[in-house]
Structures are given as structure tokens and as C-alpha cells.
């Protein structure tokens, strides 16, 4: 083989190697571009998913805040309504107490005071009971004490057959009740135990005990 032929073969080998290298380079570049596109797509999908999650979380948070705001508004309105109704109920009771002052000037008040003392004695069940009343009721209360003592003894005998129980009612003239519509306060054991049987207290007890029915009367449900 002469030099020219040898040079030709060498050149062919060089060209073959260069072509192979070029093909390999293009293949590597194509693979790199494919991998890049795949990674880019994955990254885009991840970003989209992240945005969707963040949006969903923010939307849920906003909806929760709105629900809380609605609930707070409803509760505030309901509490305000309850407060207004309670205020009206208290006002109605206050007006009723004011009217009771007029009742204390009627003949029926004498019987009421007697019964209130007897009832108080049944609550205490003590042999000696102190009675307090308004200054203007002193004479009336003092006059019905004997009758109240008698009724108490009679009622005890009726309710507990064979039992005899008496009570001595002592009117406290030194400490009259003030700011009351009428009635009496009974106590024993140096005032440690007491029963408030004033008309005011009884009406307040009625207010608490029968509040649902009072509300129905004052605030009827609209059809």
C-alpha cells in the first residue's frame, strides 16, 4: 500500500470517528433536552399543585372566617335580643312590685301577711322566730302574730298527726324593712337563718321559676 492509499484510509477512519462522535453528541444532547423537558414538566406540575393547595387552604380559611363571622353575628344578635327581653321582663316585674305597694293598703293584705308568716315558720321549724316588716306595717303585723302562731300549731298537728309544735313570733321593731313593697322577713339563731317572704322576693322567685311562661306572655311567637 502506497502512502496515498494509506492516507486515504486514515482520513476515512477519521471521518467515521467524527461522524460517530457527532451522532453521539446529538444523541446526548437530545437525551439531555428530553430529561430537561421531563424535569421542567414535573416542576411545573409541582408548582401547579402547590398553587392549587395554597388556594384551597386560603379559600377554606376565608370560608371558615366567614362562617365564624356569621356565627358571631348571629350569637351577638341572639344575646342582644335575650338581653333586651330580660330587661323588659325585669321592668315588668319592677312595675308589678310597684303595684304591690298599693295592694298592701287593701284589706286582703292582712291575710297575706298572716299566711307569709305561717309559711316562713314552716320553713324554719324553730320555737322562736324573729319577724321584720316595714315601719308602716308594724301595727298590722303585731296584730296578726297571735293568729299566725295559732294557725302554725294547728297546721303542724294536721300534717304530722300526734305532733304538737308551737312557735313564738317576736316582732323586731328596731330594724324595719326598707325599700320593700310589703311582706315579712323571718329569722332565727340570731339571724343566721332567714326566710325572705317579702312581696318583692316572692315576685322575684316567681319571675325565675316561671320565666319561660312569662316570656311567652310578653313575647308571643308570631304565626
UniProtKB/TrEMBL annotation:
GO terms for molecular function: proton-transporting ATPase activity, rotational mechanism. The keyword NADP does not apply. InterPro entries: ATPase_E_C, ATPase_V1_Esu. The keyword Transport applies. One of its GO terms (cellular component) is proton-transporting two-sector ATPase complex, catalytic domain. Keywords: Ion transport, Transport. Belongs to the V-ATPase E subunit family. This is V-ATPase V1 sector subunit E. It comes from Perkinsus olseni.
Amino acid at each position: 500500500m502506497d502512502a496515498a492509499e494509506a492516507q486515504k484510509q486514515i482520513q476515512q477512519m477519521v471521518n467515521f470517528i467524527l461522524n460517530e462522535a457527532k451522532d453521539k453528541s446529538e444523541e446526548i444532547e437530545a437525551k439531555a433536552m428530553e430529561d430537561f423537558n421531563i424535569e421542567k414538566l414535573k416542576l411545573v406540575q409541582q408548582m401547579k399543585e402547590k398553587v392549587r393547595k395554597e388556594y384551597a387552604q386560603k379559600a377554606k380559611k376565608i370560608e371558615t372566617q366567614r362562617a365564624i363571622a356569621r356565627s358571631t353575628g348571629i350569637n351577638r344578635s341572639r344575646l342582644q335580643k335575650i338581653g333586651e327581653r330580660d330587661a323588659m321582663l325585669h321592668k315588668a316585674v319592677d312595675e308589678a312590685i310597684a303595684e304591690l305597694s298599693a295592694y298592701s293598703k287593701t284589706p286582703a293584705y292582712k291575710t297575706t301577711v298572716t299566711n307569709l308568716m305561717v309559711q316562713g315558720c314552716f320553713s324554719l321549724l324553730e320555737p322562736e322566730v324573729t319577724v321584720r316588716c316595714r315601719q308602716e306595717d308594724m301595727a298590722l303585723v303585731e296584730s296578726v302574730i297571735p293568729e299566725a302562731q295559732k294557725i302554725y300549731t294547728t297546721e303542724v298537728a294536721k300534717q304530722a298527726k300526734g305532733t304538737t309544735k308551737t312557735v313564738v313570733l317576736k316582732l323586731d321593731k328596731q330594724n324595719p324593712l326598707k325599700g320593700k313593697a310589703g311582706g315579712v322577713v323571718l329569722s332565727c339563731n340570731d339571724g343566721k337563718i332567714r326566710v325572705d317572704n317579702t312581696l318583692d322576693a316572692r315576685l322575684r322567685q316567681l319571675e325565675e321559676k316561671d320565666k319561660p311562661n312569662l316570656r311567652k306572655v310578653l313575647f308571643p311567637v308570631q304565626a
